[in-house]
Write a structure and sequence with these properties.
31% helix; 13-stranded antiparallel β-sheet; twelve-stranded antiparallel β-sheet; 11 helices; 468 residues; alpha+beta
Length: 468
């Protein structure tokens, strides 16, 4: 394995522009809160292997041999086998991610886990999961202002061949990073976005309020306690989606951002929410439930923050989700290890205040990283409680598949460690259109008009970017 510390910290924007000439570039982008949540960013391209799940069919591609196959095994069974095949211990304590899979798990994988029928339409033709395996990455430590290139030589097993591949791939990425630091090197050709004038939605205002009314009926009948209902917006967006993401992360930075290029979609996320962090036997999730817009003056901003902290509706909704997450982690945790280390704290971002908690545990040694995902996916903050019935109601009321939205984006390290976000504040570019989705939790005392307005507040970060 080759690992080198660079003598400077490259601009990740310039690195991505160089990586665009390579297959399947990615950027796991920590744009804010470097002291606590957003310390590391990771970049790479040109994977050696890929797994794509689409309508319960799983396709694998080995880029080293050029072979493509349809797997006879379910997605999570296959991922478990691949991670065991390429399992390797961490070689340094400097970095949480050295090599492994990067990509997304789509929300509709919940149907595969919970075994209930899917009725929504996948009109974006988006795979249920898209995971590429990388043996060479650039890591940036924002807190220490250091950067590293890690090249493992995997998946080759012969030691001599692996060392040769590791050195060769390390030099390849060094060259790309060096070009990114050279101002005379050509960058990605500018293709400014041409944005349409009309934003359309998969709900009308009345339809969204009617759907909320249906949820309130289910709550009064004792069917559920809350449901996260969302609506999706779309706008014509010709040009390079990379231009949108550069604006998006600048105007609304977040600790769990991501930029992924797949076969037919570009995924761009500025998520503030962590789905699962796994480090050794430690696991945590950080559900967000409760939102207010930022104020236009310090006085208004403080008032809105206090309003969120004191809202009985938001606090009750938040406690329900924390309890759900405690139950999810309890399925794979050592007995008595589940704890809430942070409860209902305020985190403020460029456009919104959020109410956040941290639920953590120690993983029972019988369970793997994939087991942890199976027992907690999708995250409770974007489904409702109880989870299964809430997901059935979401499927009944929302007309389209969510795709990556409210699924998860991040990495699975070959050591077993992982960091995955909840894919909120996430846009998808597909066939010269930009799609973004926003939602909120509906509980017994929800006011339909206020819930609708909350979704519009959450959409503002996208609309500001498009207007920039």
């Amino acid at each position: 394995m080759d690992i080198i510390e660079l003598s400077w910290v490259p601009d990740p924007v310039a690195v991505v522009e160089q990586l665009h000439s390579q297959p399947y570039p990615f950027w796991l982008d920590s744009g804010v809160d470097h002291q606590k949540l957003g310390r590391f960013s990771f970049l790479g391209a040109d994977p050696f292997f890929q797994v794509v799940a689409d309508d319960r069919q799983v396709r694998t591609t080995n880029f080293l041999t050029g072979s493509e196959k349809i797997s006879t095994k379910p997605l999570f069974t296959l991922l478990q086998e691949l991670l065991c095949r390429w399992q390797r211990p961490k070689t340094t304590t400097l970095l949480p991610f050295e090599a492994g899979a990067v990509g997304y798990f789509g929300y509709e994988l919940g149907h595969l886990i919970e075994q209930f029928p899917q009725t929504t339409v996948n009109d974006l033709q988006m795979p249920d999961a898209f995971l590429s395996f990388y043996d060479t990455i650039l890591a940036i430590d924002h807190l220490e202002q250091k950067s590293y290139i890690i090249s493992t030589g995997w998946p080759l097993t012969d030691e001599k061949s692996r060392k040769h591949r590791a050195a060769d791939r390390r030099r390849w990425l060094e060259h790309i990073v060096s070009r990114a630091g050279n101002r005379s090197a050509p960058l990605l050709p500018p293709r400014p976005l041409q944005v349409g004038s009309t934003v359309s939605c998969n709900f009308t205002h009345d339809q969204y309020n009617t759907a909320i009314g249906k949820i309130l009926e289910y709550i009064r009948a004792g069917d559920i306690y809350q449901v996260n209902l969302s609506q999706r917006f779309v706008i014509d967006c010709n040009g390079n989606p990379w231009d949108f993401y550069r604006r998006f992360r600048t105007l609304s930075p977040a600790p769990f951002g991501a930029y992924l290029v797949t076969d037919n979609h570009t995924v761009m996320s500025n998520s503030p929410e962590r789905y699962l962090l796994i480090q050794g036997d430690y696991i945590e999730t950080r559900p967000i439930k409760g939102t207010r817009p930022r104020g236009t003056t310090p006085e208004e901003d403080n008032r809105l923050q206090q309003e969120l902290q004191q809202s009985s509706k938001d606090l009750a909704e938040h406690i329900m989700i924390v309890d759900l997450e405690r139950n999810d982690l309890g399925r794979i945790a050592r007995y008595g290890s589940v704890q809430v280390s942070e409860m209902e704290i305020i985190e403020s971002y460029a456009n919104v205040h959020h109410l956040v908690s941290t639920v953590a545990a120690r993983i029972d040694p019988r369970y793997s990283t994939i087991d942890c995902i199976i027992n907690s996916f999708p995250g409770g903050s974007i489904t409702g409680a109880p989870k299964l019935r809430s997901m059935e109601i979401i499927d009944e009321l929302e007309p389209c598949c969510r795709g990556v939205y409210t699924g998860s984006i991040g990495y699975l390290d070959f050591s077993g460690d992982s960091d995955l976000n909840i894919a909120i504040r996430t846009a998808v570019h597909h066939r010269q259109q930009l799609y973004f989705q926003v939602g909120g939790g509906i509980v017994a005392d929800s006011d339909p008009q206020m819930e609708y307005e909350e979704t519009i507040t959450k959409a503002e970060s996208f609309l500001k970017t498009l207007k920039a």
